[in-house]
Write a structure and sequence with these properties.
alpha/beta; TIM Barrel; 3 domains; 8-stranded mixed beta barrel; 25 helices; 16 strands; 63% helix; elongated
Length: 667
């Protein structure tokens, strides 16, 4: 009898050790997988290929286990079959435990290949997994995967430590308990407690597994969306668009079909973004994307490449006329004002169009051509579209050549300045001079400012060139002081928006005035209307700093941009220059004449000086005089002159005025 009891106790102890080992192993694996998946979810750039486990099967096995435990309890109480019956029930319980452990395969949970990386981070083969398509990597995948591998390694180490500590503790407890139990009923009770704990852990693990995998699935969807769509407009992003463009090019080449690419750039979006803020700018981009999307077919693709640049892919076109119609419809829809946070915003777009296979047979060439066509549309006045032509490629080459020559001109001092007089109609005398930049190329001769100034603006060379013009003009004007006969004609110098954006302001001008000795109150800086519309504090502080130096400020080409009364009131403006386009036809065109009259009246009411540019006929001068314009500038009086000619002109004017001055002094 003692032998049988010891046999039962030994068998029961073996069962308990087996159950405890399974429990601890399951707990360690759960803890390890939880930490590993948590590390992956936290790092978040990986899309894990996985499968869902049928929870119903697992719950069925747990139900069978509970039934087996209940049967074991009954057998223990009634004792049918003696020791053999007890052993059979213990074997049945162990079999159910083993079936649960085997059926809940981690290969089913996360994939046959992925489990190797979870169990053994040392074989985390990024390249191999990428080729198998198990993972989809974003651009920063190498750094992120390294982080995940490190976290997985740490989790592995912690799981091993947990398992070893738990196993040692469990064996110690079981060893002490086995000596104290002595009876099979106590052993069965301990076994049932262990089985209940196993069941609770398994149920918890099922719930946790469902929640974790649902979160991972949502993360996967979010990652896939972020990788393919713009987060502001929800349109296709650049990588997604390029993928579709390459596919469309391949189809077009294979099927000899016509495809068009539209490159859309919003006009003056930066001004809106800077003035009203990025939230309004983002909302404007969203609404622009919606309007563009309303102009295309379901087979077309609209994308946002970044900033204020959009593209439209038009496959399967019958002819290029269809692309023209869509471009025109986009421009028409964008011309309707946008209402954003209480603001009524007007914007437009410039669109470049290129055709495949006519203009190119690869995505890179098509994008480049569409971009060139878009810039040509901007040059043509914006709010229009242009098809790509081979001439645009030549223009791009000319641009690069001109940029190189401009840099050389700065180093070799090929620039010089001419000055055009500005006349006071009331005094019939010179009121000032405008400095005009000239460039004589050693091989190409005189190059028009209309050709090289836009290039200098776009490349940023205008900042250095503009500073040189201001320095040289102040030196030249200082040298004229001896010829003015006590008069104080002002010096007008153009300052570009690009210069202001680069930090141009009071300190630079003060240094130039100090170096040249030219008085600040005789300096007039001409700025553009586009600078005023931004109406930001930085611009105001820069202009206010110049005013405190005594420097005067003029708005050049007034009437061609966006100026409004509030801008003129807000900034320290002293003078307006009426654009020559209004002066040219004002004698024959009543509309232009009324516009000039309105500008003159407005300037007088605001106490601003006024200069009419481009005066070439006596009729224009007399009409301006009648309207009340005080000063004029143009070929009627003088073409731009060199420094030496300006000195001679000042002497001539001084001599011609001597009789009148003598008569006045003796009157």
């Amino acid at each position: 009898m003692k032998y049988l009891k010891s046999l039962v106790s030994a068998s029961s102890l073996t069962s308990l050790v087996l159950v405890a080992t399974i429990l601890l192993g399951t707990t360690a694996i759960i803890h390890y997988v939880h930490k590993t998946l948590g590390a992956i979810e936290e790092a978040l750039p990986i899309t894990l290929a996985r499968q869902e486990r049928d929870v119903g099967v697992l719950m069925g096995e747990v139900t069978d286990l509970i039934h087996a435990v209940h049967l074991a309890q009954t057998t223990t109480r009634t004792g049918p079959g003696g020791i053999e019956g007890i052993h059979r029930e213990v074997d049945r319980i162990e079999a159910h435990l083993e079936k649960i452990r085997e059926s809940y395969s981690f290969n089913d949970l996360i994939g046959a290949s992925a489990i190797h990386a979870v169990v053994n981070p040392a074989i985390f083969d990024i390249g191999n997994w990428a080729r198998q398509g198990i993972y989809s990597f974003p651009p920063d995948a190498p750094q992120t995967l390294a982080l995940i591998e490190q976290r997985a390694t740490d989790a592995n180490r912690e799981a091993r430590t947990l398992y070893q500590n738990a196993a040692e503790t469990a064996l110690q407890i079981l060893s002490r308990q086995s000596r104290r139990i002595g009876r099979f009923r106590s052993v069965t009770t301990a076994t049932l407690a262990v089985l209940a704990l196993v069941s609770a852990v398994l149920v918890f693990f099922i719930i946790w597994q469902q929640r974790t995998f649902q979160a991972l699935r949502q993360s996967e969807e979010q990652i896939r969306f972020r990788a393919n769509y713009d987060q502001v407009t929800l349109l296709a992003n650049r990588p997604n668009f390029l993928e579709h463009l390459n596919e469309a090019v391949t189809r077009s080449s294979r099927c000899s079909g016509l495809m068009a690419l539209l490159f859309i750039d919003l006009d003056r979006f930066k001004n809106i973004n800077d003035i009203l803020g990025h939230d309004v700018g983002d909302e404007l981009l969203r609404q622009v994307g919606e309007r563009i999307g309303g102009c295309v077919r379901s087979s077309d693709l609209v994308a946002r490449l970044g900033g204020d640049e959009f593209t439209v892919l038009l496959p399967y076109l019958p002819d290029e006329m269809r692309a023209s119609l869509i471009a025109r419809e986009i421009l028409d829809r964008l011309s309707t004002p946008f209402r954003l946070e209480g603001h009524e915003i007007y914007t437009s777009a410039s669109i470049g169009i290129t055709l495949c296979p006519v203009d190119g047979r690869d995505a890179g060439t098509l994008l480049k051509n569409a971009d060139m066509a878009m810039y040509r549309a901007k040059e043509m006045g914006r709010n229009t579209f242009r098809f790509f032509t081979t001439r645009m490629t030549a223009r791009a080459s000319e641009f690069l050549e001109l940029d190189k020559d401009l840099r050389c001109a700065l180093r070799q001092e090929q620039f010089y300045i001419e000055y055009q007089p500005i006349y006071d109609l009331q005094q019939n005398a010179i009121a000032g001079f405008e400095a005009l930049l000239r460039w004589r190329h050693p091989e190409k001769g005189l190059i028009s400012p209309d050709a090289f100034i836009p290039v200098a603006e776009e490349t940023g060379l205008i900042v250095e060139i503009g500073l040189w013009v201001l320095k040289q003009a102040c030196r030249d004007a200082m040298a004229w002081q001896a010829y003015t006969g006590g008069r104080r004609p002002y010096l007008a110098v153009n300052i570009s928006m690009r210069q202001f954006k680069s930090g141009f302001g009071r300190d630079q001008v003060a240094a130039i005035l100090a170096e040249s000795g030219y008085p600040g109150e005789q300096l007039l800086l001409e700025i553009t209307e586009s600078l005023l519309i931004e109406e930001d504090d930085r611009t105001y502080q820069a202009l206010e700093g110049l005013r405190r130096l005594g420097v005067k400020l003029a708005v050049d080409d007034f009437g061609t941009g966006y100026s409004a009364l509030k801008y003129l009131r807000h900034f320290p403006i002293n003078l307006l220059k009426i654009d020559r386009s209004f002066i040219r036809d004002m004698v024959e065109d009543e509309g232009d004449a009324r516009l000039v009259e309105t500008i003159v009246s407005m300037a007088r009411g605001m106490g601003l000086g006024l200069v009419a540019e481009g005066v070439e006929t006596v009729a224009q001068r007399e009409l301006l005089r009648d309207l009340g314009c005080a000063m004029v500038q143009g070929f009627l009086y003088s073409r731009p002159l060199s420094t030496d000619r300006i000195q001679a002109l000042l002497v001539e004017e001084r001599v011609s005025r001597l009789p009148a001055l003598y008569a006045a002094s003796n009157g």
